[in-house]
Amino acid sequence: MSPIVLLGVLLLLSAAAYHVGRRKAFAMAGAGGRAVRLHSRPTYHGALVALWCALPALLLFGLWLSFENAIVTRMVLERLPESLRSQPPDRLNLLVNDIRNIAAGHFDAAAAEPAIREAAAAYQRLRGLSRQALSAAVIALAALVAVFVRRRLRPSLRARNHVEGILTALLVACSTIAIFTTLGIVLSVVYEAVLFFRIIPFWEFLFGLNWSPQMAIRADQVGASGAFGAVPVFLGTALISAIAMTVAVPIGLMSAIYLSEYAGKTFRSIAKPLIEILAGIPTVVYGFFAALTVAPFVRDLGAVFGLGVASESALAAGVVMGIMIIPFVCSLSDDFINAVPQALRDGAYSLGATRSETIRRVILPAALPGIMGGILLAVSRAIGETMIVVMAAGLAANLTVNPLKAVTTVTVQIVTLLIGDQEFDSPKTLAAFALGLVLFVVTLVLNVIALYIVRRYREQYE
Amino acid sequence: MNSGRETAYSGEPQERRTIAVVRASLPRRYRSERRFRFFGLLAIVLSIGFLALMFASIIAQGYTAFRQTEIRLPIFFDPEVLHADALARADYGALIRHGLDRLFPDVRGRQERRELFALISSAAVYELRDFVMRDPELIGQTLEVWLKAGADIDMAVKGHFRRELPEDERRVTDRQFAWLDRLAAEGRLEKRFNRTFFTAGDSREPEQAGIWGAVCGSFFTLAVTLILSFPIGVAAAIYLEEFARRSRFTDLIEVNINNLAAVPSIVFGLLGLAVFLNFFHMPRSAPVVGGLVLTLMTLPTIIIAARSALKSVPPSIREAALGVGASRVQTVLHHVLPLALPGMLTGTIIGMARALGESAPLLMVGMVAFIVEIPKGFTDPATVLPVQIYLWADSPERAFVERTSAAILVLLAFLLVMNGAAIWLRKKYERRW
């Protein structure tokens, strides 16, 4: 039975359990004059049986599927001949991948060695066996627990309280997923990054001026070559983000000011959604636009003025990224400008200030902390933006602040290091996680500061 | 303003001078007012202009991809080539070559003939094969058949290779242009609706490449995301908004949710790679894994939207339910949740639309492979629409530029429908208390 069919069967079983539980409750209650008073309504009895039928079985299902692969792989490896088994771990991993691919039918089995073919067959057989056992175990568990709970139904049973208790526990479990996600991110990224820093010293990574990870294929070359100095990558990220912010902040802020202070109702109701469409466009689309329209345009424009512009210039990627961030800056600034109390405006007007004077001398200073928070959030978004730079920025890590040259960014490096042939545990792939760690920490700090400022600011005027 | 005040306090008898200074400064101040206002308007015009420019350039590049050049050839289904017992392996190329020879009997010479055969797509043999396999009765007859032109020919017909260029700078030769002119004059050249684009998977040949595989991949991925993130997000929101008392634990959850909403999406991809692929050994390139990653990414959005939907239900509803003896769970499930559901659905649709356009985290879990087959399930290797766009955008062929733009148009159409649905839902069920 495939897992999805099994889940469907489980759902049916639990529906049946609901029905059984409810019927029993009705039977216990009796009818007419001999009616017994139930503590809970029959539907709660049904729900209790159904929940108990489904939940333990689901738990078993999840655990089984999580560990099935590891256990089956180990069993298959134990059957391999000694010569194959005694390889170093990384070769063994490749072997396991081959076996899995053959078993899944991705590779042609005929081309493989007989031992591996046999192992693939064993893998397939064991997995089939495991799936059968899983189906049997899950269905048996569900049925057994349901029968057991049904027998314990009594008129005095506080079925509603039990059901509500289970539901509340489920709600709590769901809300803790956010914590586990953060924990998962931190643990996985930190774990791999620590492996990386064992090979490349932390300070060399953070302050080295030379980044060329492609050269370091063999672990023993790396220590001396110093090819993992990430400063050019950080500088490239900063350069592109800075260009993006120079585009986004003035345009976004001025749009927000015009929309909230000058525009009439109709104009606002048309212009605001149009600007927000910019936020809904997928970033690949921006990337395509940057790579195919903006970058050649910038290059040709440079040629007109006699400037040599790289075809993957930081300028093109940065400008398009800026366009992407405009609606973000605009809507946050709009919120904060609207939050400034009307009394401040009226005070300024009554002193004879013009609108622009009111905006520049009263409203903007009052809204400044909030706007700064919004800009910090926008910066963190620019740093983490991936597709635009992957498609429009370069790969070579040049140590330059010239916006006409090609630079690379943290996200571009992560993507290029992790796409394609991967050797796990090589410094090349681990470097991606080290970069990911830096990215996560920097954006986290920016977000925390920004959220703190924004919250302080909101409280100020509420 | 400042200067006016300073003179007013400077001691001389000055009411007239103050007003004079203010009056004198007025033209300058009004000018700066107009300037400021103009900059504001300019900013809006610029951002809307960028939007228009982007749409215009993508539509201009992409709309031609919905039609594909086809050439009508007289094909003789030669019984000597098509043996009834080996139809699948017959040499259909010979039939096409034969048809071209019939139209252009005077073409001789290896190079010339090679150019001639390049008019027809190398994939046309499969079309012809399917045609014959469906109806073996055709064998022995001669039929006029529309066959796809090669990608370069298609581009030339659509005007992307200009004839004025020297011959060695374009991919279509003078001879081929002459043949095309003749075919067009005979009514044998037509741009017809490009069905392949909507029904095929990826391909190295632009004229054979389609988006259906990517659309299916997106569908399976989003299905996983929706099935997981909607119930979990709603449950988390209900707990935080209706049950949780303010404590360290709930504060921790809230801080986490707010931060996760701003974590770069590629970091979720790293999480997926390290946890789902390397630790749990889930299959690479599979929609399940992509869906799980996108679930973690969209959960904060959905939780935040669901909470604000719950917040907008007035407390009087809860008090009334509690007042007639409902338990808290009953209050929430029977009364608050139904009222908040439209708002939650709106937030979920917007979250799904964002997940549909997301590609960076999916690159990390291997959904960038070149996949020809249409995925049929949650564990088949697949790619998604935005990643397909990314892959095609990398291809050097001119014909892929057109198809990339067309794929973008399809993606934007999906997003438009989803966001439209969200707005419609909000308008229809929005209630002011």
Structure description:
The complex is a heterodimer of chains A (462) and B (433). The model of chain A is unreliable at 221-225 (pLDDT under 50). In chain A, helix 13 crosses helix 15 (355-384). Chain A has two domains: 3-175, no CATH class; 231-461, MetI-like fold (Orthogonal Bundle). Chain A has helices at residues 3-29, 42-79, 82-85, 89-104, 114-151, 159-175, 177-199, 202-207, 219-225, 231-262, 265-280, 283-304, 314-339, 342-350, 355-384, 387-392, 410-418, 427-461. Chain A has 462 residues and is mainly alpha-helical. The radius of gyration of chain B is 32 Å and the shape is extended. By secondary structure, chain B is mainly α.
The overall strand count of chain B is 3
- Rg over alpha carbons of chain B: 32 Å
Task: Tell the overall outline of chain A.
Answer: flat
Shape of chain B: extended
Low-pLDDT sequence parts of chain B:
1-8
CATH H-level homologous superfamily name of the largest domain in chain B: MetI-like
Helix content of chain A: over 70%
Strand-residue proportion of chain B: 5-15%
Count of distinct strands of chain A:
0
Rg of chain A, nearest Å: 31 Å
Head-to-tail CA distance between termini of chain A? 58 Å
What is the average per-residue confidence, as pLDDT of chain A, rounded to a whole number? Answer: 86
Question: What is the end-to-end distance of chain B?
Answer: 45 Å
Mean pLDDT over the full residue set of chain B: 87
SSE order of chain B, one letter for each helix or strand: HHEHHHEHHEHHHHHHHHHH
* Count of folded domains of chain A: 2
| Largest sheet, strands/sense/barrel of chain A | none
Summarize the structure.
Helix content of chain A is 78%, strand content 0%. With 462 residues, chain A is mostly helical.
Keywords:
heterodimer, A: 462 residues, mainly alpha, MetI-like fold, 2 domains, 18 helices, B: 433 residues, 3 domains, 3-stranded antiparallel β-sheet, 17 helices, 65% helix, 5% strand, disordered N terminus
